[in-house]
């Protein structure tokens, strides 16, 4: 069970790390590449990898969350599952709804985004969709961070036998501060 929990932590940690790294890639792309159009293409491709992997990892973690012990806290289990569904939904909405709408708006523009006037309705729609994309990704990342801590807490929350009492509280430090 500990091995499975470690694998689950690793998976969600990898996705969360990739999402944080994506932010750096996006900023670096726009700073380094010669045109914003090329930078947008790099960011779009990288974001699709992040979204597909987020969906896959969330589904794997949801399926493995079904393997639980009898004495596991039901509230934590269902909270974790809800957060994993939120990650999958954020990635799916980001990829299949907002991403496709952004592609459609860009195709309607017929020229690079930077060449379209700031007051143009298509440019305003593009900017709004981009903002929604950022917020959806941030919601997925926040859900992943909270789920990470729930999974970690569940992993360390196994019963600890101290000779006299048995506790399942991972934050019970009475043993460490006991005078001898």
Can you walk through the features of this model?
The protein is an all-alpha fold. The protein has one domain. It is 73% helix and 2% strand. The chain contains four helices and two strands; from the N terminus they run ααααββ. A two-stranded antiparallel ribbon has the order 1-2. A hairpin with a 4-residue loop joins β1 and β2. α1 packs antiparallel against α4 and α2 packs antiparallel against α3. The two termini are 34 Å apart.
Strand arrangement in the largest pleated sheet:
1-2
Distance between the termini: 34 Å
Count of structural domains = 1
Helix content: over 70%
Largest sheet: 2 strands, antiparallel
The fraction of residues in strands falls at under 5%
**What is the H/E order?**
HHHHEE
Mean pLDDT metric: 89
Count helical runs.
4
Structural class: mainly alpha
Oligomer: single chain
* Shape verdict: elongated
Characterize this entry briefly.
With about 180 residues, the protein is an all-alpha fold. The chain has four helices and two strands; from the N terminus they run H-H-H-H-E-E.
Q: Which terms summarize this structure?
A:
180 residues; mainly alpha; two-stranded antiparallel ribbon; 2% strand
Topology:
Layout: H1 2-32, H2 36-64, H3 74-109, H4 121-156, E1 160-161, E2 166-167
Antiparallel strand pairs: 1-2
